[in-house]
Each structure stands twice: as C-alpha cells, then as structure tokens.
C-alpha cells in the first residue's frame, strides 16, 4: 500500500498529542478535588506526584514517567490508595505520550479501578477520557466513543460542565476520523466557546488546532491556516510544547498540500526539534517518517531512507512497539524503488516478523505482499509463492473486505512481474471494485487487467480495461506539495496510457490512439490549482473545489479502510452504522467531484483544455488546422516513442523503440550543447541523430510536402529540446524548412483558436532592472523602434501592478526581466518586476504562476525575454515519471493569452536584443510563428549569431495567429 496512508495516520496520531490537554487530564491539578484519603498518607508519594505533574506540564514526559514509577511504588508500599490511583492515571498519560501504549493502558485501567472502588467520582472523568484517547490512537473508534461518552457522563454527574465540554471536543476526534465532519466541526466549536467562557487558553488552542486539522482533512488547507496560526499564538502565550509541536506539524501538512515545499519542511523541522528537545520520542519518529514520505514520493529515495533510518534508530531505542515494523516496511519500499531488491527483501522480512510478534495481522499482510513482489523482481518465484500463501492465510483468517482487496492486488502485481497474464486475470475478476482501497488501486487493477488481455492478444478487452484504468487514474492526484509537479498520478502511469495506445493502434484505431496519447499530458497546472485560495474565475473555483474533494475522498477512503479492520464478530451496532455512514459520505464526495470537473468543461472549455481537464477529439483538432499545418505529437513510454502526425485529413502513427533514459540523455546533450556553445558546428552529430529519430519519420509521409508549419506537442524530456536546431541529412536546421509552434497538448488548439480575438496593436514594454540587466534597456529601445504606439515602463516604473494592468487589456506585452523558476515549487515560479510603493501582495514585484491563474489575460502576444521562461524546473531528474511541468507560458495561456514567446535557456544579452528587434520587424506583416521563424533564419545568416545558443531556444506557443487577416506564411520550400 502507498505510504501516503501510513503517514496520514501518523499525522492523525500526532494530533492526539494535544488531545491529552484538550481532554482535561490536568483537571485534578487545576482544582484539587476533595476526596477521602487513606489513613496511611505518604508525604513522599504526594511529593513525587507533584514533581512529576510539573515535569509533565513542561512536556518532559520521560522524566515524569520515571518519577511516577517511584510514586506508584511508594504509594503502594504505604497503602496510599488515592495517591496510587492518581499516580497510575498520570503514569498512563506519560507512557501514552512516550508511545508505550501497552503500559499506558494497564496503568490507566488500574487507576480507574481504584478510583471506582474509592468513590473518587470527581476524578473518573480524567480516567475515562484518557482511555478514550488511547483507544482512539489505536483506531478502536467504537471503544473511544464509548469512553468519551462515559467521561462526559462522569463530568455531568458532578456538575463539571467544563470537563463535559472537553469530552465533547474529544468526541470530535472520533467523528473526524470516521468522516462525520459536520458533527466534528460543531463539537470543536462547542469546546472552543466553552474554553473562552472558562478563560482556559490551552484547550482553546487545542480546539482551534483540531478545527485546522479538520479543514485539512476536508480538503481546505488554505482555510486551515487561520485556525492553526491562532492556536499557535495561544500555545506560545502558555509555553505549551506538546501543542506547539502538534500545530507546527499540522502547518507543515497544510503547506505541503498548498505546494509550498520550503515552508512545509521548515514547519515539520521545527516540530521535530520540539519533540526531540522535550523527549517526545513518538512524535519525533512520526515527524521523521513524514519527512521520509515527502521525499520518497518526490522521487528522492536516498533522502527518504536517511530519515527512515533515523526514525528506526529512535523507535528501537525507546521501544515504540509497532513503529519499527512500519518503518521497516517503508524502508523496504524505498529500497525497492531504488532497485536495491536484496536489501529491500531483508527489510520486508523483518517487518513481517515484527508485525507477527505484535499480532498485527493487517500489517503483516502488507509486509508479506511486498515481500512477494520484491522476491519476484529478483526472480525468486518459490519465495514469492510462499509469501503469497502466507498472505492468503492471513486474509482468510481476518475475513475482511480490505484484506481480500489487498491480497487480490498484491497477487496480481506478482503475476504481472512474472508475465503470467492468466493469473493476473484470475486474481482480478471484473466484479472486484476495490471500494476499500480507492481510485488509485482500482485504476491499477484495471491497468493490470488491460496488460494481461494484451499479452493474451485479446485486444478489444484490453482496450475496455485500459479505458477503465485511465478513468480511475484521472480521478487521482498525488498530494505532495513539495517537489516536482506531476502530469499524472504516480511514477509509471504513462505506461497505462501507452498500453492503451498500443491496443488501439493494433486494431487500427489511430484517431483514438492519438486522443489517448494527448490526454496523457498537459495536467501539470491542474495538479496544483489548489494553490489558488480565492479565484474570481468560476472554472478555477470549480477546479479548486474539485481538488479539495479529491483530498477529502482520499481521506475518507483511508478511514473506511481502517474502520473495516474491526473483525465482524467484534463489530457493535454503532461501528456498523459508522461504516455505512462513511461509505455513503464517500459516494457523495465522488459524485460531487465528477460534477465539478464537468462544470469546468462547461464554464471554461478553453482554460480546461489548456491544463488537461478537457479532451478534444481528433476531428475537432483537425478542423482548426490550416492546409499547410501538421500536428506532430510525441508520446514517450518506458521503452518506446510514439509519433503521431495529424493534418486536416489524416492521422497517422509510427513507433520507435528507445528507452526513456536513452532519449532523455540525448535531449540533455543537445540542449546543453545548444545553450552553451558559440560554435555553429558543435553538437551537429547529436542534433542530426535526433532529427533522424523525431523528424525523418514525418518527412517520409506524403502529407509532409504541404506541411510548412509544424505544431509540435512534446512530451517528457522532449519538452526541453530545441526542435528548431535539429539538423537533417543535408545539414539544414529544421527551422530553415518549416516554422514551429509548441503546445502542451493538441486538445488546447481548437479552444485557443476559436476564442482568438484581435484587438489593437498597442505595445507595453517592461524593463524593471536596466542597471542590473544592462542588455534589457537596449532591448527595450530596439523594440520601441519597431512597434506602434509603445508604452515603456523602465526601472521603478515597471511594477507588477502596471504589468497586471497591461496583461488584462487587449494589446501586446514585452517583458525583459528575470524569470525565476522555483525548482521545488513551480507554482511559485515568477517574473521579477519593480516593487510598488505600497505593501499590496499584488504589487510586491513578483508575478507568480499561481497569481497568473487568477487573472483574465487579454493580450494578443506576450514576449517573455527572460531565462528559461518556456519550461519547468525538472531537468535535474531523468524523467522517470514522464512529468510535464507548469511553465509561465502555459499559465499565461490558461489565463487567456493568445500567444506567448518564451525561451528554453538564458539568451545572450546582445543577441537577445537583436533577436527581439528582428522578430517585431517581421511581425508587422506575418503571424507569430512565421515572424519567429524569420527572426531565427536571419540570426542563422548573421555570422555573429549563427550558433544555436542565440536563436534555437526561442519557442512560440498559443494560436500562432496574430492578425485579423490570415497572412501568407514565410516562403520556404520543403525538400
């Protein structure tokens, strides 16, 4: 199973830190109850308990636990039953904080028994409440609910309204975890109001923190911030480390969801430091595991393993019961992702052994299935079969739906690795829906079935299963706010699309294959639209709300899975009702998500197409092509390259066998040589080789003779390739023979061209840093000389507010400035401008990608004369995830821009000025892509600027059109 579920549970458990205080476990200390004491009162036991209480209040749980053990011994020896009862209760709470749940439970129950025997009615609330917290932490929601209700009744019986309110607040924790969000909201708000009336700061902070947690789980991480920041301020005023640690961790989770890596990691690191300082070892382990998950899902498995190793060392040193088993499984998963199967196998074996000793069958089931999968990768079929048999025995013994689903998908994965299509289909009958494991696993199951059918040559069945897989996977998006943006759900989902493309092509359904290949890309901005907190665009709001629903669905699916782990004989009526309610809530959320996505396509079909939320069919795309245009769409899978060529009349496809890493390395070489070398000939051989791979197959088509314009749809590493500089057999660059327009997806073209408007040709020119970037001043002057009615904004006048105004009115905008690509968080990539005089966020001198998504851009043409404005920030990886990255140009197109000129690398200052001048001169009488091609050809003929570094990095995206009247393309011949 995905580690996301594990870490979500970790952070949920972290919330419980503060719940001890929220529960009112300090009530006896606040107003010492008057109870009849044993005649054998021990001053020493009282003193030890008092000292332990002080340490506990300061978050020094380890030291408090030591003193409490001594207090228990002394009180027992002296026959001081009252102090013994209190010491046992406090010891149970301290051990709970330290993660020693077995000891905590024994002490809490012993303390409760004594209190009931001694008639300590005013202190029963504390014991019931603490036992409720322990049950909740262990996932025993029925028991937790019963204990919290008993706690409330105990408080009511002694007219302790404040403690009763705390029990209500704790009941909100249970309702949060079983998906009864509305009930939880009311209960937390009830606690907060009560805390204010009793002037009790820490419980007020806890209520706010839990409201923040609830907002995160409901998918509204932006809304959670106000609660969490208020809670943090209250904790700071009371020096409450347990609460501060918890709320910092929640802030980390919120900023992770919002896509802010640095802030997320900073908050998590602060939480970890507090946990380490105050001996909160369980919390420190949880924080380290969350760090590991974040890095692992971002593809940095080495860093993930580093944090897991640290977590394991701490868990082992303090005996945190089940944690070492979970950590060992996470280590096995990360090692397997790194290809270190032998070491991974050892960790999987260890995890299974730990969970077996702890009688944790569901954990052991996951371990056994992972063990089998890793063993099969190593070719150890007998070992894999042995593990599957053990897993089957566990699943049979549990008799749970979730266990059966895990066994089915695990068995199918192993069969798929060994290429046994029949066993895959046997493990995954069509009627198995994976209701307890969610969309992702349902999609994976459909993909495995599709591949199995293809191996058996059952192509129609493969197509149907493949479409089902894509339908499921399109509903799922990774919740990693830090790290690279992703074009689809997980690392190898391009393989699901590739399998369907192969099946369609096998049956000659080329148009459909083209549509599926196009659907596999273009979702980068869609993945992170949750960065928009308040959007004025209706479609954007729907996308934001759809994203929130997806996160709510993921959480509800997890809770349903966990709730279903209670064996049937042990299920109470209330547990069964909770399960039914949870399932109903999940169905409701899924239905609402579908309606939101459909609403996007209705409200803003153009924007939805640009970001991959709406698909156009092949005929719709072909209808907007001119007679001299051809779409060339590339789709990269693990071991092959698909090339689609579409004209007004035909769609044809070709495939080329090439490993994705080989292709990425070739593209990297050409891009680096083209960007760095001042020599015309350097890198010629590599550029020629890529021409033969990517363009020569098109040249052989009869339709190619008319194709003076290529509309290139790159994928994966090809996003970074300067197509203009590819060289044919005669030594001519591609741009000398054809013009080139680049788009993220073919589906965007019909919507961009159909909504094209042509306003006036006024120009706004921005150069905010003429001293720092001296070439930009010269560029601005040259551009002004070539265009009509220019307005120049130089230096401090080139503010963000003025740029926003220029973008949101018809006309054209030239920006000569820095473009900063945020590698860890591309939604915060931005264009740098002069800051305004006020303190408005919308005039701070940084126009971010996420801000662009909220704007109504009306400009016909936007020229970004900055470094790497046309690509994302992924070049450091090997594109194993087939990622398409959010770019400034794509964001501008989504916001409404007609055309965008951008660059793949930093252009030489002098060359950039000359290029801009030649482009605008050509634009007087030509469309955008023709003007771009003319400028590139003119640079080629100029000895000073003939090297690709001066001209090959420029790209045009959008409609490619600029004037009301269709212009004659630049005269070139195709040979």
Quick summary:
With 975 residues, the protein is of the alpha/beta class. It contains 42 helices and 14 strands.
CATH C-level of the domain at 752-958: Alpha Beta
CATH architecture of the domain at 752-958: 3-Layer(aba) Sandwich
Spatial gap, N to C terminus: 55 Å
User: Strand content of the residues, in percent?
Assistant: 5-15%
Runs with pLDDT <50, length 5+?
Answer: 1-42, 476-492, 522-537, 564-571, 872-886, 964-975
Rounded to the nearest angstrom, the radius of gyration is: 31 Å
Instruction: Determine the CATH topology of the domain at 752-958.
Output: Rossmann fold
Q: Give the overall pLDDT as a whole number.
A: 79
Major beta sheet, strand line-up: 7-6-8-12-13-14
Structural class, by secondary structure, is: alpha/beta
Per DSSP E runs of 2 or more residues, the count of β-strands stands at 14
Shape: globular
* Count of separate DSSP helical elements: 42
Largest sheet geometry: 6 strands, mixed
Percent in helix: 55-70%
């Amino acid at each position: 199973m995905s580690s996301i579920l594990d870490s979500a549970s970790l952070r949920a458990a972290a919330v419980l830190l503060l719940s001890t205080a929220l529960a009112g476990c300090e009530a006896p200390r606040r107003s010492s109850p008057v109870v009849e004491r044993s005649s054998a009162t021990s001053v020493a036991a009282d003193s030890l308990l008092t000292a332990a209480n002080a340490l506990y209040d300061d978050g020094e749980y380890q030291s408090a636990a030591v003193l409490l053990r001594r207090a228990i011994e002394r009180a027992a020896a002296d026959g001081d039953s009252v102090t013994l009862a209190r010491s046992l209760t406090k010891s149970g709470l301290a051990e709970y904080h330290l993660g020693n749940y077995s000891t905590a439970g024994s002490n809490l129950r012993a303390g409760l028994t004594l209190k009931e025997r001694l008639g300590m009615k005013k202190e029963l609330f504390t014991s019931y409440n603490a036992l409720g917290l322990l049950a909740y932490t262990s996932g025993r929601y029925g028991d937790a609910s019963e204990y919290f209700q008993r706690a409330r009744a105990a408080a009511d019986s002694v007219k302790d309204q404040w403690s009763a309110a705390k029990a209500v607040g704790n009941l909100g924790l249970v309702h949060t975890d079983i998906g009864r969000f509305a009930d939880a909201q009311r209960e937390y708000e009830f606690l907060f109001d009560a805390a204010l009336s009793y002037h009790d700061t820490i419980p007020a902070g806890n209520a706010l923190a839990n409201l923040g947690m609830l907002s995160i789980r409901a998918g509204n991480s932006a809304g959670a911030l106000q609660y969490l920041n208020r809670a943090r301020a209250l904790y700071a005023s009371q020096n409450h480390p347990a609460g501060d640690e918890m709320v910092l961790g929640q802030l980390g989770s919120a900023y992770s969801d919002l896509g802010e890596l640095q802030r997320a990691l900073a908050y998590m690191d602060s939480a970890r430091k507090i946990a380490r300082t105050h001996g909160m070892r369980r919390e420190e382990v949880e924080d380290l595991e969350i760090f590991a998950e974040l890095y692992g899902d971002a593809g940095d498995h080495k860093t993930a393993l580093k944090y897991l190793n640290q977590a394991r060392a701490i868990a082992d040193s303090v005996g945190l019961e089940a944690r070492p088993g979970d950590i060992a499984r996470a280590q096995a998963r990360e090692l397997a992702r790194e290809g270190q199967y032998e070491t991974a196998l050892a960790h999987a074996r260890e995890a299974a052994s730990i969970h077996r000793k702890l009688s944790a069958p569901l954990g052991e089931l996951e371990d056994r299935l992972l063990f089998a999968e890793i063993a099969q990768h190593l070719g150890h079929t007998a070992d894999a079969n042995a593990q599957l048999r053990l897993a089957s025995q566990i699943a049979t013994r549990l008799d749970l739906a979730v266990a059966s689903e895990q066994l089915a998908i695990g068995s199918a994965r192993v069969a798929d690795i060994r290429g046994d299509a029949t066993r895959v289909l046997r493990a995954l009958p069509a009627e198995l829906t994976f209701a307890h494991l969610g969309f992702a696993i349902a999609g994976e199951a459909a993909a495995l079935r599709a591949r199995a059918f293809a191996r058996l040559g059952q192509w129609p069945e493969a197509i149907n299963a493949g479409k089902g897989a894509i339908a499921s996977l399109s509903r799922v998006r990774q919740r990693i706010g830090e790290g690279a943006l992703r074009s689809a759900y997980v690392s190898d989902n391009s393989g699901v699309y590739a399998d369907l493309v192969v099946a369609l092509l096998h049956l000659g359904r080329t148009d459909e294959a083209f549509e599926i290949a196009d659907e596999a890309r273009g979702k980068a901005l869609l993945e992170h639209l949750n960065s928009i907190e308040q959007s004025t665009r209706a479609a954007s709001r729907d996308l934001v709300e759809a994203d929130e629903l997806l996160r709510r669905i993921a959480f509800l699916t997890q809770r349903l899975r966990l709730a279903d782990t209670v064996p049937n004989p042990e299920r109470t009526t209330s547990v069964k009702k909770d399960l039914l309610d949870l399932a109903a809530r999940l169905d409701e959320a899924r239905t609402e998500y579908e309606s939101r996505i459909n609403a996007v396509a209705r409200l803003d079909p153009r924007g939805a197409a640009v970001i991959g939320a709406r698909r156009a069919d092949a005929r719709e795309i072909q209808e907007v092509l001119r007679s001299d245009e051809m779409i060339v769409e590339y789709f990269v899978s693990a071991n092959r390259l698909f090339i689609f060529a579409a004209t007004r009349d035909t769609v044809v496809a070709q495939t080329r066998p090439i490993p994705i890493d080989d292709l990425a390395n070739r593209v990297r070489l050409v891009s680096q040589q083209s960007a760095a070398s001042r020599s015309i000939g350097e890198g010629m051989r590599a550029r020629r080789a890529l021409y033969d791979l990517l363009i020569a197959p098109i040249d052989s088509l009869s339709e190619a003779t008319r194709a003076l314009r290529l509309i290139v749809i790159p994928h994966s590493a090809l996003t970074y390739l300067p197509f203009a500089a590819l060289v044919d057999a005669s030594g001519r660059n591609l741009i000398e023979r054809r013009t080139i327009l680049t788009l993220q997806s073919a589906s965007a073209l019909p919507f961009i061209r159909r909504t094209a408007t042509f306003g006036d040709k006024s120009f706004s020119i921005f150069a905010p840093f003429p001293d720092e970037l001296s070439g930009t001043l010269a560029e601005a002057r040259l551009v002004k000389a070539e265009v009509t009615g220019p307005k120049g904004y130089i230096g401090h006048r080139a503010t963000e507010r003025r740029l926003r105004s220029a973008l949101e009115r018809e006309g054209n905008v030239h920006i000569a400035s820095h473009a900063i690509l945020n590698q860890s968080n591309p939604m915060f990539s931005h264009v740098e401008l002069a800051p305004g005089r006020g303190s408005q966020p919308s005039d701070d001198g940084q126009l971010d990608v996420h801000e662009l998504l909220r704007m109504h851009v009306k400009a016909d043409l936007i020229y970004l004369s900055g470094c790497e404005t046309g690509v994302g920030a992924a070049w450091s990886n090997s594109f194993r995830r087939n990622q398409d990255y959010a770019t400034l140009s794509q964001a501008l197109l989504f916001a409404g821009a007609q055309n965008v000129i951008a660059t793949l690398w930093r252009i030489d200052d002098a060359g950039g000025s000359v290029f801009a001048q030649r482009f605008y001169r050509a634009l007087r009488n030509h469309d955008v892509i023709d003007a771009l091609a003319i400028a590139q050809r003119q640079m080629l003929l100029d000895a000073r600027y003939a090297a690709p570094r001066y001209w090959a990095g420029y790209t045009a995206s959008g409609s490619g059109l600029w004037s009301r009247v269709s212009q004659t393309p630049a005269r070139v011949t195709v040979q």
